[in-house]
Amino acid sequence: MVAIVAALLVALLIPTAGPSASTSTAGTPPGAAEPDPTHALPADTLVTPPVLRNASREPNTVEVTLTATPTTLSLVPGSETAVFAYNGMVPGPTLEVYEGDRLIIHLRNELPEETTVHWHGLHLPWYADGSPFHPIEPGGQADFDFVIPQGTAGTYWYHPHPHHRSAYQVAKGLYGAIVVRDRDDPLPEVAEKLLVLWDNRFLQDGSIDLPEAQSMQGRIDFENGREGDVLFVNGQANPTVRIRPGEVQRWRIVNASAARVYRLGLQGHELLYVGSDGGLFEKPVPTDDVLIANSERIEILVRGTAAPGSIVTFQDLPYDRYIPQTRPRSWDKPRDLLTLQYTDETPLRMEVPSALRPVAWMDTTDVTARRVMVLTQGFINGKTMDMSRVDEVAELGTREIWQVENLVGMDHPFHLHGFRFQVLARNGVPEPFPSWHDTVNVPKHETVRFIVQLDDYPGKWMFHCHILDHENAGMMGILEVR
Ligand code: C2O
Ligand code: CU
User: CA quadruple 86, 161, 168, 436: dihedral positive or negative?
Assistant: First the structure.
């Protein structure tokens, strides 16, 4: 008896492979619009990171405390892992604000080592950038206070950025999402899911596999950037999300992986690609899959076009970013990220708006400087990072075009701190529509051109490859805006 009940539970809870695995409509009267609460459908197993508690009573002000501590969590079933965590969780809690809000952050470092927190993609004063210029000692703390600019609604994220230690601290569990909301969001009716992607590797005892730099695996990690064989969505392996037939869901996706580039696709579904790092496009773009390089964010609309009871998989599809010598053996196999399970409710009828928000192209006529960044393995313009050197000098308030040329046979995602940009062309092909980015993947032997406006905040801003192992090794430079 117990075994039968257990088997039934398993059948309910564990999605079986393949589409249309369950078409049971038991308990749902035909034509019923509302879900029947007595009908035991499993809920989402996907856990959403909680939103950071706002301690402020002032209007348009968000005041939060973030503490980085060592702790122990179960990341893979059956074992405990020593991690570093923000407010005790991996990923850290989500920082949620509206455009125009004043954001006050109290940061505490309870780690046994120096750290910083970089608010990746936000336009903010230099002191608050969390770059290696502003380390926080163990036991130390720092306060940040700045305003989120209008027009920057989008998905961002935070992660440590201490000199030479970002890869280690992110591998240990330090990363979290930032959502900047627009009070006039064009998709108010659409249910939202936040999906923070991360990967990791574990030893038998559950500890995080961080090999010696000189070992064979250490060298491969250095070359490729460290990838893990366990893929996480919000800290969970292959969680389940439910969708009602006909429903439209908005998925905000953050790639918090150190090196893994995901080509995302949903079996048997066309996706609507609606946003990049800096938020929504002008209109939805239908596509079968979307590439998201590490540190990038995307927004997609998932439309419940399959039959009630269907079960499909959201996958990381093969994408060859590697040099052949260190390409992982299973690079060409799709990997499951998340299971989408259709309810057997009657289909909803939901429309997707054809216009999202206006995004104007930046004017290219009054550009004051053009810069070329040549990427080779571990170097930018032939140099590695020197904290006491300024590589590029720009004038505050000006607009520039940067051309990033990748001369080598693996992809390098290029990130600029502090200022968002618009990609103008990829490998000579003009970008079809304007969108906001702070990171752009530069594929092997290709060139990307972007335009950037260096407004508001003077300072020394980093630009670097966002493969964290490359960044740690100094594939980074400094732009001084003054
Ligand atoms: Cu995501 Cu220099 O950072
Ligand atoms: Cu790189």
Answer: positive
Contact between 91 and 176 (Cβ < 8 Å): yes
Atom in ligand 1 nearest the alpha carbon of residue 157: 1
- For atom 3 of ligand 1, the residue with the nearest CA is 120
Distance 364 CA to ligand 2 centre (A): 28
CATH number at residue 471: 2.60.40.420
Q: Which of 129, 156, 184 is the last residue of a domain?
A: 184
The 10s digit of each residue's pLDDT in 3-22 is: 333 333 333 333 333 333 33
Distance between CA atoms of residues 175 and 103, nearest Å: 18
Nearest to 129 by CA among 438, 468, 443: 438
Single-letter residue type at 80:
E
Give distance in angstroms: CA of 11 to centre of ligand 1.
Answer: 43
What is the per-residue burial (b if ≥16 Cβ within 10 Å, else e) of 400-436? bbbebbbeeebbbbbbbbbbbbbbbebeeeeeeebbb
pLDDT tens per residue across span 46-62: 999 999 999 999 999 99
Rounded to an integer, what distance in angstroms lies between the CA atom of residue 47 and that of residue 236?
8
- CA–CA dist 16, 268 (Å, integer): 16
Range of the domain at 387: 369-481
- CA of 121, closest atom in ligand 1: 1
Same domain, 45 and 177: yes
| Integer CA distances (angstroms), 215 to 171, 186, 212, 347, 474, in order | 18, 51, 5, 55, 20
Residue pair 24/344 in contact by the 8 Å Cβ criterion:
yes
